[in-house]
Design brief:
By secondary structure, this protein is α/β, with parallel strands linked by helices. It is built from 20 helices and 16 strands.
Length: 515
């Protein structure tokens, strides 16, 4: 009988429940309990907020904290915290965990109703009678105090995921946004008024869209989003690729004809690069994207398959920015810390959403009253690809055709020499490289440089681009300067293409194509 092949466990990509992950036995948990212990062990001031991009393991972190405070030691065998003097092993504390993603609705009334349902559910979970009267925030405070009195420790633990989700749904409806934001402010501030009843509090979110107003009632929270000591709390480090994930990296490499070193390098190129603290050089991989690659055995973009943020792409196009413009963006620390939902500064939105990260820190001179500044850039190949494809989708209006359909169509247009059809969609400069055309930019000749040349097995096409002139002038320049001469008389026909960008129309004029 053949020996059964050992199945290598891979990090979870969809399981956000820590007990299920551990007891299920199919997924791998990369141990972060030493950092969670450091967060949770202080008896006072253990009330935190952390923001991270979506699909970065925030929900799994909260589930792990819940199991810690509930004292479920059997789940932590072999992990760092199992050897530490954790209070939960001898004196568990009741935990109330919920996600504000459940508080949704198409208008203010629906959001308010869902928030009321959530509070009623908390009373029932604690075995308390639901008050018949009172405002939703008032009932929430009553719950916090009553649940703590009932607790054997005299306190409770509160874990809140996706705190910003109810507001994010109304970014295009400022009137409703302000009403929802006020409701959340009044709701969340009860956590501050009841802080004596709370042993530990953790709130998570993607952005700080509501921080200016909502957090004015939560100024007792410690925002650890950029703390040096928690820069690697969420996400996988290069050291973890060498350690806990080594056999996964080796397996991925074997499937793709690479040794461990080459596989690790490719993984870091695709998924690493997120730097969350200016005081730390530490960078991490997106855990869900890396987990997907290890599970499927293929290096490609996974992050955007969980839902492209159209808001980000809209902000880019409205600001007239191309993906290439995001490679070296300067920003002040304060700009990144707060994102006003009404003005939506693009840089902070991109940074908090995970599309930009800290590439470098430029130290200011305090003697000259200079503050530090950051240089931002997309963290990795996966995000660059997501930005590029998202921008193309927006620019080309993909309501009619999916992105891959347009790629295939453009490839056929190139192969058949249909240059007019290829240019009609306005995507030459952005799109050429993605369709396999591999344009050669700035091709040198005796009298200058051709703007671009595309060579196919059947044809050579020479391009000249003009701005605020004419396509005719572009063709004239190709001929007078002999940009196509080196190919004339060869085995393949030569096509000349003159293109003029008209700034008034913000589009190209009808191109001239000459065989």
């Amino acid at each position: 009988m053949e020996k059964e092949e050992r199945r290598i466990k891979v990090p979870t990509t969809g399981v956000c429940d820590f007990p299920r992950l551990i007891l299920g036995g199919n997924g791998k948990y990369v141990d972060k309990t030493d950092l969670l212990y450091r967060l949770a062990v202080p008896k006072t001031d253990s009330q935190y907020f952390i923001s991270r991009p979506r699909r970065f393991g925030k929900s799994l972190m909260l589930s792990t904290l819940k199991a810690m405070f509930e004292g479920r030691r059997e789940l932590f065998k072999g992990l760092a915290i199992d050897k530490l003097p954790w209070e939960g092993w001898t004196q568990p504390t009741p935990v109330y965990s919920f996600t504000m993603g459940d508080v949704s609705g198409e208008n203010y009334a629906e959001v308010k109703e869902e928030l009321g349902v959530l509070v009623d559910r908390l009373f029932e979970q604690a075995g308390l009678s639901v008050p018949e009267k009172g405002t939703i925030p008032g009932k929430f405070r009553e719950f916090l105090v009553s649940a703590a009195k009932k607790s054997p420790t005299g306190q409770i633990v509160v874990l809140i995921d996706e705190y910003d989700e109810p507001v994010a749904a109304f970014l295009d409806d400022l009137k409703t946004l302000r009403r929802v934001r006020k409701l959340l402010h009044d709701f969340y501030e009860k956590l501050k008024f009841s802080s004596d009843s709370i042993r530990f509090l953790m709130m998570t979110g993607v952005t700080k869209l509501t921080k200016l107003s909502v957090f004015s009632g939560l100024n007792h929270l410690t925002d650890i989003s950029s703390f040096q000591q928690y820069a690697t709390l969420l996400g996988y480090t290069p050291d973890e690729l060498d350690g806990a994930l080594r056999e996964n990296v080796e397996e991925l490499g074997a499937k793709n004809g690479m040794d461990f070193a080459a596989a690790k390098k490719a993984i870091l190129s695709w998924y690493d690069g997120y730097r969350f603290s200016p005081e730390s050089e530490a960078r991490v991989c997106n855990p869900v994207s890396l987990g997907s690659a290890l599970k499927i055995g293929k290096l490609k973009g996974y992050w955007e398959t969980t839902g492209r943020t159209s808001l980000v792409i809209n902000r880019m196009t409205n600001a007239g920015k191309l993906p290439a413009d995001l490679e070296n963006v300067s920003a002040r620390p304060l700009t990144l810390d707060v994102c006003d939902a009404e003005t939506l500064p693009m840089v902070s939105l991109l940074y908090q959403g995970g599309y930009l990260t800290i590439k470098d820190v430029k130290k200011g001179d305090p003697t000259k009253d200079e503050t530090d500044s950051y240089v931002l850039a997309p963290p990795n190949l996966e995000v660059r690809e997501a930005l590029f494809e998202g921008y193309l989708s927006q620019a080309m209006g993909l309501d009619e055709d999916p992105f891959n359909t347009l790629v295939d169509k453009a490839k056929r247009q190139i192969a058949s020499g249909d240059w007019m059809g290829y240019l009609a969609k306005r995507y030459f400069q952005l799109f050429a490289s993605m369709t396999g055309a591999n344009p050669q930019p700035e091709v040198a000749t005796m009298l200058g440089y051709a703007d671009a040349v595309i060579e196919t097995p059947k044809e050579v096409c020479v391009f000249e681009f003009k701005y605020r002139k004419s396509a005719k002038a572009a063709i004239k320049q190709i001929r007078e300067r002999g940009y196509a001469d080196k190919w004339i008389g060869g085995d393949r026909p030569v096509t000349l293409v003159g293109i003029n960008f008209n700034p008034k129309k913000r589009n190209i004029d009808m191109p001239i194509i000459e065989k």
